[in-house]
């Protein structure tokens, strides 16, 4: 039985063909080579898919950016304050292995090529995971990706800094190779026009403070949010396919945390990969990621072949 929860919010539903018609005269600015370069391991997105799905989306986003800018102008007129650039923040959520990175990278490339050449930055939320030493100390090393594995206060503070126009905001860097946050390594985000934030947890509520302190959720800072959706069985298959590909590539590196998987027999490694899916990523999907789907402005629903089959757009 499909355990996915129906989004409570009312959405417009589109088939892929209906959605792609909304592209109107939005021009394709990526080549087949660009799409190949931007997609991640095991994501087969084609130029045609990018045109059909992402051009209507970039057209929609250009309307949203304009609308948010107008709202901002209203507030500066009301307050009689000087006009200040406020970054537009897009969130990309969904399960491990659903293809968030590919979506975020394609979107970034398309938005950068808008006529006004906006500065578009991309961050992944894994940089806000607690380092392994902290996870170990708290006994939650097996809960990486779960809400409590992130420094949520730091993540919210980061988004607040970006929204308030702060320059040179530092973001910690997570390495899949060493399976940990890299000490002392940061990327700097400097007043972008658009920021894309990609991660499992982007639509999740934060912890409620025990005292009467004010609370903000990451989603309070998002101007537009996208949830990439797929059936549990497809996600498991994609995770396992990627796992076996990584075993032939990244895991071969002796410094990879998962190097031992490259040295085991295929059967043994497969059993361990399956265990990672079943004991970490699947429960996190069911308990913490999927319940946030109904909060997204846009839901992109993928079929077994990774292609988007249905689009849902929240009514405003
Ligand atoms: N163990 C790993 N080693 C190297 N790269 C990885 C590993 N796990 C995931 N990745 C890469 O990290 C990125 C993010 O993966 P993930 O969080 O599953 O999100 P998604 O598949 O939705 O983009 C992807 O580009 C993926 O290929
Ligand atoms: C690093 C992740 C938590 C994803 O982080 P995100 O960028 O979505 O915040 C995830 O890819 C991960 O490594 N999960 C732990 C279990 C696993 O190895 O798949």
Automatic annotation (TrEMBL):
Ordered alphabetically, the record's keywords are: ATP-binding, Coenzyme A biosynthesis, Cytoplasm, Kinase, Nucleotide-binding, Transferase
EC number(s) reported in the record: 2.7.1.33
Where this protein primarily resides, as one coarse class? cytoplasm
Where, per UniProt, does this protein localize? Cytoplasm
Is ATP-binding among the key words of this record? Answer: yes
Molecular function GO terms recorded: pantothenate kinase activity
The protein's annotated catalytic reaction(s) are: (R)-pantothenate + ATP = (R)-4'-phosphopantothenate + ADP + H(+)
**Its domain of life?**
Bacteria
Family membership noted in the UniProt record:
Belongs to the prokaryotic pantothenate kinase family.
- Put simply, this protein is called Pantothenate kinase
